[in-house]
Amino acid sequence: MASINSEIKPFSAQAYHQGKFVHLTESDLKGKWSVVFFYPADFTFVCPTELGDLADNYAEFQKMGVEIYAVSTDTHFTHKAWHDSSETIGKIQYPMIGDPTGTITRNFGVMIEEAGLADRGTFVIDPQGKIQIIEINAGGIGRDASELLRKVKAAQYVAAHPGEVCPAKWKEGEATLAPSLDLVGKI
Q1: pLDDT tens, residue by residue, 78-110
Q2: pTM for the structure as a whole
Q3: Which residues, listed in sequence order, are joined to residue 133 by a DSSP beta bridge?
Q4: What are phi and psi of 124, to 5 degrees?
Q5: Over the stretch 132-146, which tens digit does the pLDDT of each residue have?
Q6: Which residues form a coiled coil (predicted)?
Q7: 86: closest CA among 16, 149, 24, 34?
């Protein structure tokens, strides 16, 4: 299973992105912040609500220099068909990676083997290709893009400000902490 500060493993995949089929590898995720967003399957119930929420917040992620990559064990052809037939999915401008062999899904440790589907896994990857945030939800629990935005902002802040950490519920512009002996037992 993927772990915090581990480097993403090599992969090669086809994706549907802005009306085209494109080839992506782990190298495409390096050099910028990335969110790899696994979901169980196209043409389902909770999945389109999550992907639509990401689509609605995509411009904000882009302003932060973050690319979103949605991944399921469907093919890139299925992603195109879903994109073309659903108003919600039709809003998506980020790459939708097909992982029919399950290689990427297994690399990140979110494969439900008996179903051949991905768990609801979210991974935030820094520009060096190292995982900084991992979140895995049960199948019936949808994720919230605004909360993901907050977490990515915190990860970017901590990366840019060594020696500082973000407390619970931290929002951009709020006070951070500088861990020291003086803080022990005072918070």
Answers
A1: 999 999 999 999 999 999 999 999 999 999 999
A2: 0.95
A3: 124
A4: -100, 125
A5: 999 999 999 999 999
A6: none
A7: 16
